[in-house]
Description:
Layout: E1 5-9, H1 13-26, E2 36-41, H2 43-52, E3 60-64, H3 80-86, E4 88-92, E5 95-101, E6 106-111, E7 114-119, E8 125-131, E9 134-142, E10 144-148, H4 156-159, E11 171-177, E12 187-191, E13 196-200, E14 208-212, E15 215-217, E16 220-227, E17 233-237, H5 243-250
Parallel strand pairs: 1-2, 2-3, 3-17
Antiparallel strand pairs: 4-17, 5-6, 5-16, 7-10, 7-14, 8-9, 8-13, 10-11, 11-12, 13-16, 14-15
Keywords: ATP-binding, Cytoplasm, Kinase, NAD, NADP, Nucleotide-binding, Transferase
Subcellular location: Cytoplasm
Active site: 43
Amino acid sequence: MTRKIAFFASDAPTAQTALDALVLRFGQTPEAEADVIVALGGDGFMLHTLHRTQNLDIPVYGMNRGTVGFLMNEYGEDDLLDRLEAAVEEVINPLSMRAESRDGKIHTALAINEVSLLRAGPQAAKLRISIDGRMRMQELVCDGALVATPAGSTAYNNSAHGPILPIGSDVLALTAVAAFRPRRWRGALLPKAAVVRFDVIEADKRPVMADADSRWVEDVIWVEIKSEARISHRLLFDAGHGLEERLLREQFT
């Protein structure tokens, strides 16, 4: 049974109160020496924690002290050690984003949920879409478009009417945001190994920003997105409440 736990919490008062209680009860281990990291907050804090600790081969167990908490387990103190012992591990890969802005700078970022392109002005964006170097759509007129991982498919992708993907599937979701032309086009399912490129048409007249898990780049002229198999994030979930079960449940509520 693991006892070497590193606790971290968001700035929310409920998360800070939980942090104090758990550290008092179980102690605090430096994260580099820990068997497990326990993150206290919401989904945003979980994403922040996963990005921050991506170079450590340590699983992260989240307890919800935020709002939605899709990536989090229920909060509880009394049976924490037993829950950690019985937890199920899910391994996910992030997306890597490479983008060029109008000033010629190249920007890179990683995203666990999705990389999205969004119009940054009053006019709709115009995007050209290529997959693995082959142009697949000459012009998508829309408010934006995104590429989502299975783990992120219930987030912004779902709000944009994209498909919810099984966690073990080797696919990505490419989803349009408020597509105007083609009017009824909502996106596509792509192999996990696909490289997706968006070229912004009329970038000076129709500015577009790119966002990778809330790290954004303004005035992009092209964006390339692919799954980053070299990086793995280890998440722990209570037995019977793993990502696969959560994704199924999300589709029937």
